[in-house]
Structure formats: C-alpha cells, structure tokens
Write a structure and sequence with these properties.
Length: about 425
C-alpha cells in the first residue's frame, strides 16, 4: 500500500510539471528571448513538442494515480512500453548512430541548433557568448565552449596576435578545443590566437566579423581560410539583389551596422537547451514521418555532381572578391597583415578553378597567400565518414601556417 502512495505522489508531481511546463509558459519563456533569437535556427516546433510531452506526462500521471485499480496484466504491458521508450530515449541520446544512419542521427540530436542566436538587424546568426554544451555530429562528440564574445576560444581575450576567420573546419567541428588549428598554432608560434571561425560561415559573415570584432583585437595577422563550399553558402544566405548592392559600394565606403543587444538569461537558456534537445524519441518519430511522406510523394534525394568550373556563380564570386578586398583594406588601415588561405580540395560544391581564382586575386592585390595543397588528399587528416579535419589534420594545417608566421616574426626581429 505504501508503494502505491509513492506512485500517486509521483503521478501528482507529473501533473504539477504539466501545469508549470505548458505551451503558454514556454511561449512566454521564448518570447522573453530578445528578438526571438532562437527561432530561425530551430527546426522543430518547441511548442508542439511541449504539447506532446504534456500529453505523455498526463497519461503516465493518471496511470500512477490509479495504478491500484488497474489489472496486473495492463500494468505490466504499460510498464514494458514505458521502459522500452525510456531505454530508446537513452540510446538515441547516447549513440543514435547505432539505430540510425548518420544524417538521421544528426537530425535527432540537432546539436548545432541551440548554440546560435539570431540578430534580425544584421540578419545573421551568432554563437551565444559564455555558452557550454556537448556537440554531436556523425558519431563524434566534442565540448563546445564560447568566450564572452561568442567565439570558440578557451579564455576571454581583448587582444590577440592572430585572428582566424573560417567555417566549421576552423571552428573545430568534431574535435575538442585542444585539437584545433587555433590551439596548435598558438603552441607552434608563441603568438596569441583568437578563433572567430564558425560553422557555415563564408565571406558574408567573415567580413562583418573582421570589421566589428577582429580588428578590435589589434592583431598582427588576419588569417582568412576560404573553403570550397563558401560560394554555395553565400548563395544560400543572400539574394542576388543583396549581393549586387554590396558589390556596387566602393570598398572604402562599406560600413556595418552594430549588433542588437540581446539579453541573456541562464534560466531561459537551460529551459531552451532541454527543449531543443529532447525528447529524442519524438525527433526520431518526426524523421520517420518525413521519410514516409517523401516515399509516398515519390521524392528522391538529389545526387550532387561537383561542378567542372565556376560558370553560373559570377555574381557570387564578385561578392566574394569584393568582401576579401574590403578585409584587405581594413587590415592595411590598421597595419595588419591579411593572409588568404584557400582550402579548395574535392567538395560537392567546389571546383578545380577555385584555387587559381583566389591565387590570381591575391597576386593582383598584394594579398599574402599560403598554399596548403600538400595536405589536401591525405585520408588520415580527415574524420572518417565526416570530412572535417581530424586532430592530425588540424596539426598539419597549423604547421604550414606556423612556418610562414615564424619566418615573418624572424624578419621583424632582423
């Protein structure tokens, strides 16, 4: 009898949770986030998820409260089903790739969703400052920790010798901080490094970050790592009109808006972090539903064929070149050496022309240039079934860049 009373108390506690965590309170919590920062980068409906969770808790709560009146066989059946879903939730959270293919597992975890906030004034995503979480992608886990500005750096700095700009390769996707290019570069040069690299960034974001953040660190060097899919990322971020508008502004007249002030609440962050991640079972159900709809509608995945040349991307290249030249311009104004480093190996969105387009741009505009093609096709430099740099890849890239910078530093001393 005592056991049943404890179960009733647990059932009543679930009802209390339903009262506290319901669509109205969650909407209020979300609405309190300045500029609704989470919305553009959250691919699931948090409010609908809350309804589903409340329904599940309501059913479990009723079961626990009236358990003494339920036949034993029904109790066993319900308990077995509940235990199954609990174990499934744990397994999906711990190792989703054991049950799903990697793309589906990534969608279930959605780790990248909750590390960003959106600024509607700038029309750009930014990583949340002073934020920690565990990331997952393609079976790899790593610790994500940002500094006070929202960049993946182990400590806060207001000054750095080296500023790095790039996408997920430079951010350090798939590896912990101590295995990234920035970490190795600092060790190999004895220069301080601030890593401004972020997933999916291209020159659209990088030119803003350098002007509004990077230059304020008073660096000696700015390293721009161009990746093969940057052209594709720009076309996903900007309309042709936006690109043309930027290209038509003289470099010396380009200005950037200040970021909106986004208030951060640790309580809201915790609530949104939980709701953005769980329940994994529900996320897996959504994926199954989408796959069934696709099959019934006859939709099939498209095979991406690497382009032979950059034809059809002329405007995007004009935008990219203009952004690079602006970064060179602002670096020169501040007596900073601007260095272009193409990472243009085989990629579904890249082409063999990209390296030479950038090489020509650098030579014509007195831009320092580092050629890293020697590490392009070495398998152990990339994470298996993922394609981002492994620890060895980050170290190899850092060695090439460090060699260049160390020579520069010796020239200054002479």
């Amino acid at each position: 009898m005592q056991k049943v009373n404890y179960l009733r108390i647990l059932g009543l506690m679930l009802f209390l949770i339903i009262i506290l965590i319901n669509p109205l309170t969650i909407k209020k919590i979300i609405g309190a986030e300045s500029n609704n920062a989470w919305k553009p980068y959250n691919n699931i409906n948090v409010l609908n998820d809350t309804i589903y969770i409340d329904v599940i808790f309501f059913i479990i709560g009723l079961f626990l409260i009236f358990i003494s009146k339920i036949p034993v066989n029904i109790r066993l059946l319900f308990g077995t089903i509940l235990l199954f879903f609990i174990l499934l939730e744990i397994l999906l959270g711990f190792a989703p790739h054991l049950l799903l293919d990697y793309p589906s597992a990534n969608m279930v975890i959605l780790a990248y969703n909750n590390i960003y906030e959106y600024d509607p004034i700038i029309d750009m995503k930014f990583m949340k400052p002073n934020f920690e979480t565990t990331m997952y992608w393609d079976g790899y886990r790593w610790k994500h920790k940002t500094d006070k500005y929202g960049f993946r750096n182990p400590i806060d700095r207001d000054k750095a010798d080296i500023i790095m700009l790039g996408d997920s390769l430079i951010y350090g996707h798939g590896v912990d901080q101590d295995y990234t290019v920035g970490y190795f570069l600092e060790k190999m040069t004895n220069l301080t490094v601030s890593n401004l690299g972020r997933t999916a960034d291209a020159t659209y974001q990088e030119v803003y970050l350098l002007n509004q953040y990077g230059i304020k660190f008073k660096p000696k060097y700015v390293l721009l790592f161009f990746y093969a899919n940057d052209i594709f990322d720009i076309e996903n971020s900007l309309s042709k009109n936006k690109m043309m508008e930027f290209v038509n502004i003289p470099i010396e007249n380009i200005t950037f808006k200040e970021r909106s002030k986004i208030e951060h609440s640790e309580f809201r962050e915790k609530i949104l972090d939980v709701l953005n991640k769980r329940p994994y079972v529900l996320r897996a159900f959504y994926l199954m539903e989408l796959e069934i709809v696709k099959k019934l509608s006859g939709q099939n995945g498209k095979t991406i064929i690497p382009p032979e040349n950059e034809s059809g991307h002329e405007l995007t290249w004009d935008y990219t070149k203009h952004a690079i030249l602006q970064m060179k311009y602002i670096s020169d104004l501040n007596n900073v050496e601007f260095i272009l480093i193409p990472i243009t190996h085989k990629n579904p969105n890249g082409s063999p022309e990209q390296f030479w387009i950038l090489k020509d741009l650098a030579s014509q505009n007195n831009i320092s240039f580092i050629d890293i093609r020697s590490i392009y096709e070495i398998p152990e430099y990339y994470l298996p079934h993922d394609g981002h740099y492994s620890e060895d890849g980050h170290r190899a890239l850092a060695e090439i860049v460090a060699k260049y910078l160390n020579i520069k530093e010796k020239e200054v001393l002479l």
